[in-house]
UniProtKB/TrEMBL annotation:
InterPro entries: KR_dom, NAD(P)-bd_dom_sf, Sc_DH/Rdtase_CS, SDR_fam. SMART domains: PKS_KR. This is SDR family oxidoreductase. Residues 10-189 form the Ketoreductase domain. The lineage of its organism: Bacteria, Pseudomonadati, Pseudomonadota, Alphaproteobacteria, Sphingomonadales. It comes from Sphingomonas molluscorum. Its EC number is 1.-.-.-.
Length: 247
């Protein structure tokens, strides 16, 4: 059972907020009465997401490139200004990757910086603000991937980043336990979002054939973890489509 009322008034930062999962979880948080700031890369349709989600709700949007320290610093400056602090980080931001030998040096570094370094930097900044607020219900939700278990050919760089996120989450969770800051790792399978190299029509077909997850299902998994009572810790939640590709 999900009692979303405990999210009322919570200050929540959602990275990757213009994407399928980020947008879906933002909609659920807003419906529960949370105060939201969504962020995404400057080239993402952040304005479209904000227009769809806002409609009088307490929502803010800020474009930032989280692969850089400057982008993270600017984002958390906006968090301080718009939200006045933070109770929860939901990190959904990410970029896809090709095979290592088909990428140049800048390309594989960008994948690691976007999919791993941004998670570390945003988590650190979020914890600083949760500590400053002196609350005992702070939470970090990091969206990883089941790719680290499948280890599919052609995904070595992407897996390096997501494997780092998994190890980071599982270790940091133990470090945060004395402070009662919970940390959950969500590991979804293939998601029918724009991050996939397919058209919207193809993604819809894959979802209908149970080969990809609807973004809303991943958002519901995040909401489940975020609404557990304070003494209950969802450590890792793996969710995948019925016919997840494993090669």
């Amino acid at each position: 059972m999900i009692d979303a009322s405990i999210l009322a008034g919570r200050r929540v930062l959602i990275t990757g907020g213009a994407g399928g999962v980020g947008r879906a979880v933002a909609a659920r948080m807003i419906a529960a009465g949370a105060h939201i700031l969504i962020t995404d890369r400057p080239e993402a349709d952040l304005a479209g997401a904000a227009a769809e989600l806002g409609r009088g709700a307490p929502l803010h949007a800020f474009a930032a490139d989280l692969s850089t320290s400057a982008g993270i610093a600017a984002l958390f400056g906006a968090v301080d200004e718009k939200l006045g602090g933070l109770d929860m980080l939901i990190a959904c931001a990410g970029v896809g990757s090709g095979p290592l030998l088909e990428m140049d040096d800048a390309g594989w570094r960008y994948v690691l910086e976007s999919n791993l370094a941004s998670y570390v930097g945003c988590t650190r900044a979020a914890i600083e603000r949760i500590r400053a607020a002196g609350i005992d219900h702070g939470m970090i939700v990091l969206v990883g991937s089941i790719s680290v278990h499948i280890k599919a050919v052609g995904e070595s760089v992407y897996n390096a980043a997501k494997g780092g996120v998994a190890s980071f989450a599982e270790t940091l969770r133990k470090e945060l336990m004395p402070e009662r800051i919970r940390l959950t790792l969500i590991e979804p399978g293939a998601i029918g979002s724009a991050m996939q190299p397919y058209s919207a029509e193809e993604r819809s077909r894959f979802i209908e054939e149970f080969q990809m997850l609807p973004p809303a299902e991943v958002a519901d998994a995040i909401l489940y973890a975020a609404t557990r009572p304070r003494g209950v810790d969802v450590v890792t939640l793996r969710i995948e489509p019925l016919h997840q590709k494993i090669y």
